[in-house]
Amino acid sequence: MHNRYGKLASWVYNLDKPVGRSFGDVEFYRQRLEDVDGPVLEPAVGNGRILVPLLEAGLRIEGFDASDEMLGYCRDECGKRHLSAGLTRQRFDDFSYDTRFAAIIMPAGSFQLITDAASAAAVLKRFHDHLAPQGRLIIDLDPIGGFLGASGSIRSWATDDGDLLTLTDHRVETDFIAQTTLSHLRYEHWQDGSLTRTELDLFKLRWWGVNEFSLALQAAGFSDVQVSGNYQHGRAPQPGDDIISFEARRA
């Protein structure tokens, strides 16, 4: 995979999407998991934007991420709130736990970082194998419209120290056969008008059709697939929805 959150990318992510910021997903996952009796896993846990509120709600949740920088933000936030969380550096393709989980969640479209269809199928099977019987998998995906919008945006954030962080997003490739987009994300750190550091992330994502992903879940061994739009459980996705959530169960 091309994607890795380095120092500047993680810093920008944490400024833009801090713990406590919800897009409707924090409330959605808290509600969907309120009756779960057992441990929960969040792959690609990031800075803990979802994990920390769920810990505070009393859920037994742990997570992994491939980025040491993102895990550092998550650990710091847990420490500030006196929360204990199992956090490890692992990757989608070879993560391993002795525990069998009551639920596995992947909010915010993180599954789309897996851009090869065969690899994605293998990860779904790995999720299935790490669930206890009747365990649930909940995954959010962005619809195709989120991939094919305008390119070339520039965003900026001011730090507490008065520095400036900028992100320039330029899509350089759209592969309609592989269902992927490749963007160049340039992160820059400015101090007193001088550029002190820059990072270039080759950011690749894959989009899925609703029926396509439902079939992929079934092929991985899941049943009772439910699809919802815009964090309204039970409401079928509609044109214009910003997010599509899939929930399935291990038999």
3D structure, described in words:
This protein has helices at 7-16, 25-32, 51-56, 68-80, 117-129, 210-219, and strands at residues 40-43, 61-65, 87-89, 101-106, 131-141, 153-158, 164-175, 180-191, 194-206, 222-229, 244-250. It is of the alpha/beta class and 251 residues long. The chain has six helices and eleven strands. 24% of the residues lie in helices and 35% in strands. Strands 3-2-1-4-5-11-10 form a seven-stranded mixed sheet, sandwiched between helices. A four-stranded antiparallel sheet has the order 6-7-8-9, with helices on one face. The model has no long low-confidence stretch (mean pLDDT 95). The protein is globular. The chain has two domains: 7-143 and 207-250, Rossmann fold (3-Layer(aba) Sandwich), CATH 3.40.50; 145-206, S-adenosyl-L-methionine-dependent methyltransferases (Single Sheet), CATH 2.20.130. InterPro entries: Methyltransf_25 (IPR041698), SAM-dependent_MTases_sf (IPR029063).
Question: Which homologous superfamily in CATH is the superfamily of the largest domain?
Answer: Vaccinia Virus protein VP39
C-alpha geometry: globular
Total tally of structural domains: 2
Query: Roughly what percent helix?
Result: 10-25%
H/I helix tally: 6
CATH architecture of the largest domain: 3-Layer(aba) Sandwich
